[in-house]
């Protein structure tokens, strides 16, 4: 059981479940708490919960943290704050199902960035798999209409979500530069950085009169987001990247729309259209093909067959 709980596939599947719930929570939050208030409060709660457990690790790891503190701040600001600020704002303009399917394009961003920046190799099945994922994301973004996609006439929320996806994909690639520190130190420093980085967004929302502080339902939503997608989800994702690398780990984000679509239909009553189903087929087919291509590429070559008269 202990070995199963430490398996990267399971850790990343649980991460995807929490992130699927994040989109549903973001839709439920409309009218109860505003996007930037959610972003700040989620990281405030995370920091307060982590502090009693992580500060000792941070003090021990400080010699390794200090020279990389600017990098860690950028990682927390981009991956935790900017991504989520755009994510929750996008949910004001599009459905949770659309957002979650579009989120599944992150592996393509990670693959392209890895290839351009680090010449990370990819097999033909992986490339085809990534291409299927891209098709699966384009379908809901165009609401099932090819003409909409060709004219680039996308819903504002869908376009915002695609920008958020690029930001998180680059964050995933940049995780390779994080220092070798305890996971509690890592998640605490990133969460604290995210909290600090969220304050200008909160100040802007307050200054424009659009900030909405949570009522009881909004507070419960913020608490779920802080404990699930923020603390558990981000911690498990970082651990998954450590175990199997960013390219493979990011593929499992493709499970997010599966969990999220089921939650959106059950909790929000959102409709699942035929083009959503087609998109999910492309997404799941992409992850399966890309992972199969990875396994084939890593398989050891068969030993040469000895010719007549030779010994093996």
Automatic annotation (TrEMBL):
One of its GO terms (cellular component) is plasma membrane. This is Membrane protein. Residues 9-139, 156-289 form the EamA domain. InterPro entries: AA-Vitamin_Transporters, EamA_dom, EmrE-like. It is found in: Cell membrane. Pfam families: EamA. The lineage of its organism: Bacteria, Pseudomonadati, Pseudomonadota, Alphaproteobacteria, Hyphomicrobiales. The keyword Ribonucleoprotein does not apply. It is a multi-pass membrane protein. The chain crosses the membrane at residues 41-58, 70-91, 97-118, 130-152, 158-175, 187-204, 216-237, 249-267, 273-290. Keywords: Cell membrane, Membrane, Transmembrane, Transmembrane helix. The keyword Transcription regulation does not apply.
């Amino acid at each position: 059981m202990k070995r199963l709980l430490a398996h990267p596939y399971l850790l990343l599947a649980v991460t995807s479940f929490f992130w699927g719930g994040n989109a549903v929570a973001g839709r439920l939050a409309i009218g109860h708490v505003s996007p930037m208030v959610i972003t700040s409060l989620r990281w405030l709660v995370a920091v307060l919960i982590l502090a009693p457990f992580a500060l000792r690790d941070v003090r021990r790891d400080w010699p390794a943290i200090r020279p990389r503190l600017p990098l860690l701040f950028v990682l927390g600001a981009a991956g935790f704050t900017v991504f989520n600020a755009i994510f929750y704002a996008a949910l004001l303009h599009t459905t949770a199902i659309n957002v979650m399917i579009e989120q599944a394009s992150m592996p393509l961003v990670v693959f392209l960035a890895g290839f351009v920046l680090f010449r990370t190799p990819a097999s033909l099945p992986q490339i085809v798999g990534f291409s299927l994922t891209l098709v699966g994301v384009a379908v809901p973004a165009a609401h099932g209409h090819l003409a909409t996609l060709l004219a680039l006439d996308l819903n504002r929320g869908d376009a915002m979500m695609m920008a958020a996806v690029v930001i998180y994909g680059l964050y995933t690639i940049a995780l390779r530069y994080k220092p070798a520190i305890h996971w509690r130190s890592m998640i605490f420093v990133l969460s604290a950085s995210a909290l600090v980085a969220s304050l200008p967004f909160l100040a802007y929302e307050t200054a424009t009169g659009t900030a909405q502080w949570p009522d009881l339902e909004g507070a419960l939503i913020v608490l779920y987001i802080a404990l699930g997608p923020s603390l558990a989800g981000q911690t498990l994702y970082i651990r998954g990247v450590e175990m199997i690398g960013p390219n493979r780990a990011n593929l499992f984000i493709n499970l997010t729309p599966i969990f999220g679509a089921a939650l959106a239909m059950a909790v929000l009553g959102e409709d699942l259209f035929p083009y959503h189903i087609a998109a999910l087929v492309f997404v799941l087919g992409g992850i399966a093909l890309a992972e199969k291509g990875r396994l084939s590429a890593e398989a050891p070559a068969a030993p040469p067959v000895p010719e007549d008269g030779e010994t093996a």
